[in-house]
Write a structure and sequence with these properties.
Elements lengths: L20 H6 L4 E2 L3 H19 L5 H11 L2 E2 L4 E2 L3 E3 L5 E3 L4 E2 L3 E4 L4 E3 L4 E2 L4 E3 L1 E2 L4 H5 L2 E4 L2 E3 L4 E2 L4 E2 L4 E2 L4 E2 L4 E2 L7 E4 L4 E5 L1
Parallel strand pairs: 2-5, 3-6, 4-7, 5-8, 6-9, 7-10, 8-13, 9-14, 10-15, 13-16, 14-17, 15-18, 17-19
Antiparallel strand pairs: 1-12, 11-12, 19-20
Helix pairs in contact: 2-3
Length: 201
């Protein structure tokens, strides 16, 4: 099997890599998800996710307990409404007083950092995985990921999509349905696909 390593993920052979695919994943390098540690980590997360999503909304104590088992770091006074969908959960951190509305999909193959006092609208997607453009490495199941960072007091409108490697600066607002493919500075409003800055705050 060919190991693609160039920035555009075309197929070239760099020689042997002694790391496990789990180690490669954590480093942000190309990997194949068949590694047992990846499979086990996702299975654990999916079990906790299913339990979290099944808890009645009135049982805030149990929901909070399960959220802290599922997510790597959860600040004080955080509210996350079910359903929540993750890959690992353990690669996500959520700052104090952040509110996450229904249906967050946070694919945390790479770290996802959500700051304090953020507001995440319904059906937002935070997507760290990257698949090859070239057909052969994609067929061979190679992939990698890049982290996502939301600064403090960011508001993502309903249905917004944040793509791999993006950082959004503090106090910024992303409009409903926007697709954020590049970094956004602090203190702005961005809308559209691809998201573009329309004003400063």
């Amino acid at each position: 099997m060919t190991d693609p390593t160039s920035s555009d993920m075309t197929a070239s052979d760099p020689g042997p890599d002694v790391r496990t695919h789990y180690e490669r994943m954590l480093a942000g390098d190309l990997y194949i998800a068949a590694d047992p540690r990846i499979i086990d980590g996702q299975a654990t997360a999916h079990r906790l996710m299913e339990e979290f999503n099944a808890i009645p909304a009135a049982d805030g104590t149990e929901r909070s307990r399960l959220l802290r088992l599922l997510v790597g770091s959860v600040g004080d006074d955080v509210v996350v409404r079910a359903p929540l969908f993750v890959d690992f959960g353990s690669h996500i951190s959520i700052g104090d007083r952040t509110f996450v509305n229904f249906g967050l999909m946070a694919l945390d193959v790479a770290p996802i950092t959500i700051g304090a006092d953020c507001q995440i609208g319904p059906n937002v997607q935070l997507l760290t995985p990257i698949h090859p453009l070239e057909p052969e490495p994609r067929r061979a199941k190679w992939e990698r990921a890049a982290p996502i960072t939301l600064g403090d007091n960011v508001w993502l409108g309903g249905g917004a999509i944040v793509l791999p490697g993006v950082t959004i600066g503090e106090d910024s607002v992303v409009g409903a349905g926007a697709v954020v493919s590049r970094d956004l500075p602090a203190g702005i409003v961005a809308v559209g696909n691809p998201a573009r800055v329309i004003r400063t705050l």
